[in-house]
Amino acid sequence: MLRFGRYVRAANVEDALEVLRFRKGAQVMGGGMWMRLSGRTVPCVIDLSDCGLDKIEETEDEYRIGAYVTLRDLECAADFNYRTGNVLNAAVHDIVGVQFRQLATVGGSVFGRFGFSDVICALLALDSEVELVEAGRVPLATFIDMPYELDVLTHVIVKKHDYQASYQCLRKAATDFSTINVCAARWDGTWHVAVGSRPAKARLLAGEALGVSSAEPTADEIARAVEAVRGLAYSSNMWGSERYRRHLAGALTARSIVQAAHYASTEAYQAALAACTREEAIR
C-alpha cells in the first residue's frame, strides 16, 4: 500500500521547489497512476493542483501544455492535435482507458522518462521542450537523458510548424503497454523519427543520421531510414524479444514515414509504400 508521511499542497511552483529541496525524500505527485503501484511510504508528497498547470495555452508560435493537463485533455485538444498531425491523440487514446487518462498527467508521463512512454515518443519527433522551475527551458531530446534532479516540471512546449507526422505502435492487447512505438514527423524541411519502448528510453534520429531528405521519400530513402532505426540498441522483456522489436521498429518506421508524407501522386505513394513490404530491401 502507498502511504504519505506528509501532504503539501503548494500555492505556487517556487514553493513546491523549496519543499522538494528541503524535505528529504519529498516527491512531486502528478496523476499518481504509476506511484500508486508501489508499496512504500513517501515521506512528503507535493501537490501542484493550485499552481494553474492544468491548461493548454496557445501563443503565436507555440503551445504550452501545463504539467497537470491530463492525457484525456491532450487527447481531446482538437486544435492542438490538428496542428501536430494528430500524433498525440494517436499516442494516448489506447492507454488503459478513459478513466485512467482522466487522471494521468502529461507532466508525470514526461518527467518520469519511462522507456514505455507513448507520450514521450510522440513529443520527441516534434519540436518540443520542457520548462523547469530551476533549469528553465530544455529540449526534450536533451531532458530525457539528464539525471533526475530536484526540480519541478511546469510545462511541455511544442513549437508551431507545418507538421507532417504519423504515430505507429504495436500492442499485444488493447490498452497494454506498447511493444514498440515509432513517430515520424517532418518539420522545417527535415524528417525526425523517434523510437520508444525499445524497451529503453526513446531515441531520436534526424537529418543525415536518418537518411531521408525529400518531402516525398523514395523506397531507397525509406530503406535507409529503416536500416538506421534497426541500428539502435534493443533488448528483451516480457513484451517482446530484442530481435522482434528490431524487426517491428523497421516496419513501423517505413509505415509512419509513408503515412506522414504528402505524396503528390498515387504512383509516388505506391513506390514508397513498397518499402514497407519489401523485406529484402529494408533488412
Give the helix level as a range of percent.
Answer: 25-40%
What series of H and E elements makes up the topology?
EEHEEEEEHHHHHHEEHEEEEEHHHH
Number of structurally distinct domains: 3
Instruction: Count helical runs.
Output: 12
Structural class computed from helices and strand pairing: alpha+beta
Reported CATH architecture of the largest domain: 2-Layer Sandwich
The chain-level mean pLDDT equals 90
Strand line-up of the largest beta sheet: 6-7-10-8-9
Strand content: 15-25%
Gap between N and C termini: 47 Å
Poorly predicted regions: none
C-alpha Rg (nearest Å): 19 Å
**How many strands?**
14
CATH class of the largest domain: Alpha Beta
**Inertia-based shape:** globular
Pfam families: FAD_binding_5
GO molecular function, one term: oxidoreductase activity
Protein name: FAD binding domain-containing protein
Domain FAD-binding PCMH-type: 1-163
Can you walk through the features of this model?
By secondary structure, the protein is α+β, with helices and mostly antiparallel strands. The chain folds into three domains: 3-47, no CATH class; 56-159, 2-Layer Sandwich (Uridine Diphospho-n-acetylenolpyruvylglucosamine Reductase, domain 3); 165-282, Enolase-like, domain 1 (2-Layer Sandwich). It has twelve helices and 14 strands. Strands 6-7-10-8-9 form a five-stranded antiparallel sheet. A four-stranded antiparallel sheet has the order 11-12-13-14, with helices on both faces. Strand 8 and strand 9 (136-139) form a beta hairpin. Helix 10 (242-260) packs antiparallel against helix 11 (266-277). The model has no long low-confidence stretch (mean pLDDT 90).
